[in-house]
Amino acid sequence: MGRKAQKELLIIIPAYNEENNIGKLLKKLEQPEIEKIADVLIMNDASSDKTNWVVKGSRQKHEIVTHVFNLGYGSALQLGYKYAIRRGYQYVIQMDADGQHDVCNIPVIYERLKTADEDGKYPDIVLGSRFMEGSTPYPVSFLKRIAWTLFRGIIFIGTRRKIADPTTGLQGLSRRVVIFYSRYNHFDDRYPDANIIMQMLLLGFRLVEVPAVMHIREEGVSMHSGLRPLIYMCRMIYSILAVWIGICVFKIDAGAADEKEG
């Protein structure tokens, strides 16, 4: 049998020790309404459990890249972007492997990426938001609520844009954003989050949000469990401020959003 026809949309899923979740997610992604519009790439970040074998045993034999060493969430995504560019995909949707991001969001984000605004311009980034009208209820811990409030405030002060969910991992990207992210020093290799939102807004990329359906993790351990949210919050505030200084003071990557795709 020949290689199946490639779609224009690639779903990238970073995974680290998600053997109890990834199989259920892949079954949902194999539903006809998703399967007909998207290919799936799993970035297995050196999982020590059976994540690799669960993916390889899936019905559709999805593409998987397995790291020899754990490189981190951001590095897994960036390598996925490089894969997407080399394979010629026009759009990317990134989502988590733990089942929190409902697959029903994929057609919504995909359609928004391909929908021009009143000025005839297409979005570069579409964020799936947990905190917009139309989003499903999503419980938030006190510490995380503080962090998100701070991130929203800093982004608003720096860009004058109100972002409802600056830490969402559910995002749709145009090809030119994927090209930009795949270049050296354009993407955080550990925790690409609100800092990257700040970066892309300051550089002039077009960013929109859509309400999303999300669920609470049922199994496994989140990378933001325990005291990690506090450490993460401090690191992210520092990173957001560093991004603002780099772009607004030192003009790093100024005009990047005006560059033609190359």
Mean pLDDT score: 93
Shape: globular
The beta-strand count equals 7
Which bin fits the share of residues in helices?
25-40%
Strand content: 5-15%
Alpha-carbon distance between the termini? 34 Å
Alpha-beta content class: alpha/beta
Can you tell me about this structure?
- The two termini are 34 Å apart.
- The mean pLDDT is 93.
- The protein is built from nine helices and seven strands; from the N terminus they run E-H-H-E-H-E-H-E-H-E-H-E-H-H-E-H.
- It has a seven-stranded mixed sheet with strand order 3-2-1-4-6-5-7, with helices on both faces.
- The protein is an alpha/beta fold and 262 residues long.
- The protein has helices at 22-29, 32-35, 51-56, 73-87, 105-113, 142-159, 175-182, 194-202, 228-249; strands at residues 9-15, 38-44, 63-66, 91-94, 125-129, 171-174, 207-211.
- Helix content is 38%, strand content 14%.
- Helix 4 (73-87) packs across helix 7.
What structural keywords apply?
262 residues; single chain; seven-stranded mixed β-sheet; alpha/beta
Compact description:
This protein has 262 residues and is α/β, with parallel strands linked by helices.
Give the helices and strands, then pairings.
Elements: E1 9-15, H1 22-29, H2 32-35, E2 38-44, H3 51-56, E3 63-66, H4 73-87, E4 91-94, H5 105-113, E5 125-129, H6 142-159, E6 171-174, H7 175-182, H8 194-202, E7 207-211, H9 228-249
Parallel strand pairs: 1-2, 1-4, 2-3, 5-7
Antiparallel strand pairs: 4-6, 5-6
